[in-house]
Every structure is written in structure tokens, then in C-alpha cells.
Amino acid sequence: MKRNPSNFRYAWTASLPVLFGYVTLGFAYGLYMHNLGFSFWYPLLMAMTIYGGSVEFFIANLLLQQFNPLNVLLITAVLGFRQFFYGVAMLSKYPQHGWRKWLLIFGLSDETFVLNYYTKIPAGYDSTVVRTWISVLDYFYWAFGALCGGCLGGVLNLQVKGLDFVMTALFLVLAVEQFLKEKNHWSSLSGLIITIGCLLVFGKSYFMIATLLLLVLEYYWFSYRKGGSA
Questions:
Q1: Which of 42, 66, 121, 134 has the most neighbouring CB atoms within 10 Å?
Q2: Residue-wise pLDDT tens digits, 42-101
Q3: pLDDT single digits (tens) 97-121
Q4: What's the confidence (pLDDT) of residue 230?
Q5: C-alpha 111: how far from its chain's center?
Q6: Do 82 and 208 contact (CB within 8 A), yes or no?
Q7: What is the largest CA-CA distance in the chain?
Q8: Model-level pTM?
């Protein structure tokens, strides 16, 4: 009798690059919160509820200031606006019904998007289950790192500076790995060209939103052409 492949094991293997990046950066975030004077449960609670690295680092500073809910809402919306486009891109890959739909939506971080969108899941595996496990594992990595950093912050008593580069480095590693797997590099090259063009035209304050809009339009244009030529 043929043994069914393990969806969890495949998801675990695929998520290993995120494991090292998320635990390291989550640890730095926990230490950062400790250095600001917060107990270990603050970074853990924020990691489990907000689950957005850049937003969490920014909110940490806002907690030391006078509370302004409108300001927090606007900043969070701007920092997390790219998640909207991630969700649009995943419409064809995520289930439209059931409890997994909501879990996958909540767990759609930058690195999880890269893994769930680009990972080629072999025949015999349940793609929805694999993507669910990837999302759960990535979420656990981040929360675990934040907890360790917050708990050990008092023992280590370190002033952490500059470790936020780990998130950028992790995303670049995943992007390069995907680039090497591609048969046609047009999508990656066009994305790079669009990003540089928007940076030059709109400046660093607004280029991200313009880039994401153009990339989504490009995605649907190519999808339309592919469907029309079929």
C-alpha cells in the first residue's frame, strides 16, 4: 500500500528559510521591547495579534507616546497596505470557504506570501493543507522568537541596534531562490524595472503603493492575455 506523503513535513521543509529569519528578528524585537521597558508578554501578545514585523516595531514606539487612535490606524494602514495586493494575488490559490480561509488570510505575511504563492507543491500533496501548515509554522516562528527575546532580555541586558535588516535579507534570499527556479525571468525583471521606475518618479515616500498597483495590473493583464489565447 502506497504511503501518503506528509503535508506537514513538506511545509516544514519549505518554511525552514523563514524559521531562521523570523526567530532571529522576533528575538531582536523581543529584546527591543524589553529595552523600551516592557514586560515579556507585550512582544508576545503583539506578535500573536498584530503579526506584522514593521508595524510591531513602529507600534512599540507609539506605546511610549500619548495614544492617538487615528494616527495609529493610518500608520498601520500605510505600513500594511501591501497585504491587500498579496490577498488579491492569492485569490486563485486560497480556499474560498471554510475555516482555513480565515487562518490563511490572517497569516499572510511577506515571507508567507512568497512561499505560498511560488512554492510548487508536487502531486500527491494537498496544496491547501500544505499552505495552511506553512502559514501556521511561520506564525509560530515569529511568536516564539518574540517570546524568547522578551524573556531573555532581562538576563542578557543587551542594547540591540540594526538587527531589523534580517527581515530585508530574508526576503531577498527568498526572491533570489525563486528567481533561480524560474524558467522565464520576465515577471521578476519587469517587477524590478517597475519598482525602480516608480522610485524615480514618485519618490521613496509613495513609490511602494504605485509599484504594487502597477504589479497587480501587470499580473491581471498577463492573466487576461493567457486566458484569451487559450
A1: 134
A2: 999 999 999 887 788 778 877 887 777 776 776 677 667 778 878 888 988 898 888 999
A3: 889 999 999 999 988 998 999 888 9
A4: 40
A5: 4
A6: yes
A7: 64
A8: 0.71
Closest CA to 150 of 24, 38, 9, 1: 38
Q: Helix 82-89 to helix 110-118 angle, to the nearest 10 degrees?
A: 20
Cα separation values, 80 from 38, 44, 205, Å: 24, 20, 14
Name the residue among 7, 55, 61, 19 with its Cα closest to residue 36.
61
Spatial distance between the Cα atoms of 61 and 205, rounded to a whole number of angstroms: 20
pLDDT score for 229: 46
Report which of residues 149 and 224 the model is more confident about. Answer: 149
Kindly report the number of other CB atoms within 10 A of residue 16's CB atom: 11
Q: Which amino acid is at 39?
A: S
